[in-house]
Design a protein that fits this description.
Number of strands: 2
Shape: elongated
Largest sheet: 2 strands, parallel
Strand order of the largest sheet: 1-2
Number of helices: 4
Order of helices and strands: HEHEHH
Distance between the termini: 26 Å
Oligomer: single chain
Strand content: 5-15%
Structural class: alpha+beta
Radius of gyration: 16 Å
Length: 83
C-alpha cells in the first residue's frame, strides 16, 4: 500500500520471512496471495543465532552448516541468478 501511496515505480516486490517456522501460517500465505507477492525465501528459526547473540559473538562467524546461513546463501544464489 505504501508503494502505491508514494507512487513508486517498483519492478518486483518480494518478501523474505525471517525466523520462520517450518510451515507458514495460512493467514500469512493468504495475505501474501492477496497482495500478489510471492515469498522468495524463508530464513528458518536458528538456535545458533540465539546462542551467538547471547554470547555476543558476531553472526559473521556462524558456521556454514547453520540453517540460517544455508538459507541466506540459497537466497543470494537465487536472486543473483535472475539478473
Amino acid at each position: 500500500d505504501l508503494v502505491s501511496d508514494l507512487k513508486l515505480v517498483i519492478k518486483k516486490q518480494i518478501v523474505i520471512i525471517d525466523s520462520a517456522p517450518t510451515t507458514l501460517d495460512p493467514l500469512v500465505t493468504e495475505e501474501l496471495d492477496r497482495l500478489g507477492i510471492d515469498p522468495v525465501a524463508t530464513i528458518p528459526l536458528d538456535e545458533e543465532i540465539y546462542e551467538y547473540d547471547l554470547k555476543l559473538k558476531s553472526l559473521l562467524d556462524l558456521p556454514d552448516t547453520s540453517k540460517a546461513v544455508i538459507a541466506v546463501n540459497d537466497l543470494m544464489i537465487k536472486l543473483l541468478s535472475k539478473n
